[in-house]
């Protein structure tokens, strides 16, 4: 799902934030990205979101080289990636409902459909009574839950979280982590950047450790660790609702069949859509989804093998 | 999925933006209204003044008075010379008696009652009709210079025509045009600056929101649209206020003319062309200012 090959990122002042990083995150995996402040975690996430461009090397998402992506195509890629921040980044003058609905409004989805899906997500995160509240009237944990709902509203294939528990107390941190694991169990690839070693220890999931921009260690997932394996079962009733809201019909999101070799249908569609981007944002989004879902042949197959082992 | 939810979202956001800095929005709308009214009224007045000048120019004649007792062949010679001048359409020769008869008709009969025939002014003259339409003040100056030269011709006593009045009108129109245009340009620049600043403030106050939207996959067009709509809405509001202002001015002038001259003013200050100008120029100017502001301050 995510592949980096010999990636370097140098800034204009000459500082090298990432140096020869090569890694692969498979579809449906839950991976921690750790390291001290300045190790390059956030830079790596920014590269995946195309907020920065690589200086050298290649970054592939869903088999697609985003290094060569045109600026006009970047929004369509981002529609397939959910993102969560340490400081939540909720829009202060918009209500909880509006904050979650933004992603669907960007796609031009009608009010009725938005109402239905946002309503179900609000129920899933236990904030249906606070839908008209402004972010400033919510606790930190509530704000982060809203941010997660916002990130998930368009069913992204990948969820990136930059220090999602950094502003939360330990109890709330666990709550948010459980939420992220539940999302991962439904098939979403989750990459969490954190320097909270206690969390990493507790969950025992695959951990990529960065130091001074280099990938120092790739710690494998501990046997019996939570998450990651598709088909590991569903959570509470609230999450069934969330699954429905996300269009998963309450069932475990199946591991997608690997695309046929050489099948670039999704990407070709996206290329076609880009020229038409000025007239239909939605088709571009769909194309982005196709690209992310179809292109990652090898990792998809590996994930399936892992799931069945 | 269609355009309707998006349009509704853009409008909602544009109104929300206007609430970010309400006073600046009000100032933008008012300065736009004043500058649009000023330009519209100026255009109306200048248009009317040009019409008046054209009309006067078309009616303009030059009277060349010749000394009493000038021989006929000398008279013909002068006539031929005047006729040869470019811009002279026709020359009509009048004898002293014919001129006196014309003056008699022009003067009040009461004034002429009991007056000796010789006391009524009359002099041999040549009346020149000019080509219609004096294009500019330069033409008029050339004409005046030529008239002065003609006065020096032998046997010519005087040359008269309404050039001075026309010259004054030209000067008045030119002053009005210059002052009006400078004033309108200053007002327009201020209005555009206020719209520009309102949108800039909106962009700055929403930097975080813009970043979030961008990260969620919003296209630059989606992010910019509410700001552009805000500018266009300010322009439209400015147009509506300008229309209301000109309409009130029209009503006020109408009642003034009725009270002073006991006549109904038939010319409207708000003809369809003015309404069209206001409805098109306001939103267009608002859009232009916000477009420049968004282009300069919104990087997505």
Key phrases:
heterodimer; A: 309 residues; alpha/beta; six-stranded mixed β-sheet; four-stranded antiparallel β-sheet; 11 helices; 39% helix; 19% strand; globular; B: 300 residues; alpha+beta; Alpha-Beta Plaits; 2 domains
Verbal overview:
- The complex is a heterodimer of chains A (309) and B (300).
- Chain A is α/β, with parallel strands linked by helices and 309 residues long.
- Chain A has helices at residues 41-48, 74-78, 96-106, 111-124, 140-152, 170-185, 197-203, 237-245, 265-275, 281-294, 297-308; strands at 2-10, 16-25, 30-34, 56-61, 64-65, 81-85, 158-162, 189-193, 206-211, 214-219.
- Chain A contains eleven helices and ten strands.
- Chain A has a six-stranded mixed β-sheet, sandwiched between helices. A four-stranded antiparallel β-sheet of chain A has the order 2-1-4-5, covered by helices on one side.
- Mean pLDDT of chain A is 76; it is low at 228-309.
- By secondary structure, chain B is α+β, with helices and mostly antiparallel strands.
- Chain B folds into two domains: 3-55 and 169-297, no CATH class; 58-162, Alpha-Beta Plaits (2-Layer Sandwich).
- Chain B has ten helices and four strands, in the order H-H-E-H-E-H-H-E-H-E-H-H-H-H.
- The longest helix of chain B has 43 residues, at 163-205.
- The model of chain B has no long low-confidence stretch (mean pLDDT 82).
- Chain A binds chain B through residues 49, 51, 72, 75-80, 83, 89, 91-94, 102-103, 105-111, 114, 150, 154, 277-278, 281-282, 285, 288, and chain B through 1-6, 8-9, 16, 208-209, 211-222.
How are the elements arranged and paired?
The complex is a heterodimer of chains A (309) and B (300).
Chain A lengths: L1 E9 L5 E10 L4 E5 L6 H8 L7 E6 L2 E2 L8 H5 L2 E5 L10 H11 L4 H14 L15 H13 L5 E5 L7 H16 L3 E5 L3 H7 L2 E6 L2 E6 L17 H9 L19 H11 L5 H14 L2 H12 L1
Parallel strand pairs in A: 3-8, 3-9, 6-7, 7-8
Antiparallel strand pairs in A: 1-2, 1-4, 4-5, 9-10
Chain B lengths: L2 H16 L3 H38 L1 E6 L5 H12 L4 E7 L1 H11 L2 H4 L12 E6 L6 H15 L4 E5 L2 H43 L1 H9 L4 H42 L10 H26 L3
Antiparallel strand pairs in B: 1-3, 1-4, 2-3
Helix pairs in contact in B: 1-9, 2-7, 2-9, 2-10, 6-7, 7-9, 7-10, 9-10
């Amino acid at each position: 799902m995510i592949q980096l090959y010999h990636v370097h990122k140098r800034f204009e002042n000459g500082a090298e934030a990432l140096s020869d990083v090569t890694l692969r995150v498979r579809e449906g995996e839950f991976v921690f990205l750790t390291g001290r402040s300045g190790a390059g975690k956030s830079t790596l996430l920014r590269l995946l979101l195309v907020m920065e461009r690589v200086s050298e090397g290649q970054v592939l998402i869903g088999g697609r080289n985003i290094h060569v992506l045109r600026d006009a195509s970047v929004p369509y890629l981002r529609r397939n990636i959910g993102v969560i921040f340490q400081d939540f980044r909720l829009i202060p003058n918009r209500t909880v409902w509006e904050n979650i609905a933004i992603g669907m409004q960007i796609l031009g989805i009608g009010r009725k459909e938005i109402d239905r899906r946002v309503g179900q997500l609000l129920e899933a995160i236990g904030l249906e009574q606070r839908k008209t509240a402004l972010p400033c009237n919510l606790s930190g944990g509530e704000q982060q839950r809203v941010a997660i709902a916002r990130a998930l509203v368009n069913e992204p294939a990948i969820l990136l979280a930059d220090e999602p528990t950094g502003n939360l107390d330990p109890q709330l941190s666990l709550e948010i982590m459980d939420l992220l694991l539940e999302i991962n169990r439904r098939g979403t690839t989750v990459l969490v950047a954190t320097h909270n070693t206690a969390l990493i220890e507790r969950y025992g999931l695959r951990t990529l450790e960065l130091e001074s921009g280099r990938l120092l260690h790739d710690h494998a997932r501990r046997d019996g660790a939570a998450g990651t394996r598709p088909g590991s079962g569903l959570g509470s009733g609230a999450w069934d609702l969330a699954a429905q809201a996300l269009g998963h019909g309450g069932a475990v999101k199946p591991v997608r069949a690997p695309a046929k070799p050489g099948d670039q249908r999704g990407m070709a569609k996206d290329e076609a859509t880009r020229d038409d981007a000025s007239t239909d944002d939605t088709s571009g989004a769909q194309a982005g989804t196709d690209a992310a879902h179809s292109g990652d042949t090898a990792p998809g197959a590996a994930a399936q093998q892992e799931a069945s082992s | 999925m269609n355009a309707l939810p998006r349009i509704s979202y853009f409008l909602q956001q544009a109104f929300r933006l206007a609430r970010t800095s309400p006073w600046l929005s009000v100032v933008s709308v008012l300065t736009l209204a004043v500058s649009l009214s000023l330009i519209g009224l100026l255009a109306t007045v200048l248009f009317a003044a040009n019409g008046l000048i054209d009309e006067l120019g078309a009616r303009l004649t030059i009277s060349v008075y010749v000394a009493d007792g000038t021989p006929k062949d000398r008279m013909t010679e002068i006539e031929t010379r005047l006729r040869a001048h470019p811009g002279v359409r026709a020359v009509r020769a009048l004898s002293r008696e014919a001129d006196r008869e014309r003056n008699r008709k022009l003067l009040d009969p009461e004034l002429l009652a009991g007056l000796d025939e010789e006391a009524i002014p009359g002099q041999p003259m040549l009346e020149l009709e000019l080509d219609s339409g004096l294009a500019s003040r330069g033409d008029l100056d050339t004409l005046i210079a030529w008239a002065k030269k003609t006065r020096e011709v032998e046997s010519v006593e005087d040359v008269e025509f309404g050039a001075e009045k026309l010259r004054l009108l030209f000067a008045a129109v030119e002053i009005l045009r210059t002052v009006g245009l400078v004033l309108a340009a200053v007002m327009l620049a201020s209005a555009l600056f206020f719209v520009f600043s309102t949108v800039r403030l909106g962009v700055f106050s929403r930097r975080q929101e813009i970043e979030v939207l961008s990260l969620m996959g919003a296209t630059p067009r989606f992010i910019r649209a509410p700001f552009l709509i805000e500018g266009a809405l300010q322009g439209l509001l400015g147009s509506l206020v300008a229309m209301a202002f000109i309409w009130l001015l029209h009503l006020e002038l109408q009642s003034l003319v009725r009270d002073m001259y006991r006549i109904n003013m038939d010319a409207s200050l708000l003809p369809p062309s003015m309404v069209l100008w206001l409805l098109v120029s306001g939103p267009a100017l608002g859009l232009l200012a916000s477009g420049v502001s968004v282009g300069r301050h919104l990087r997505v």
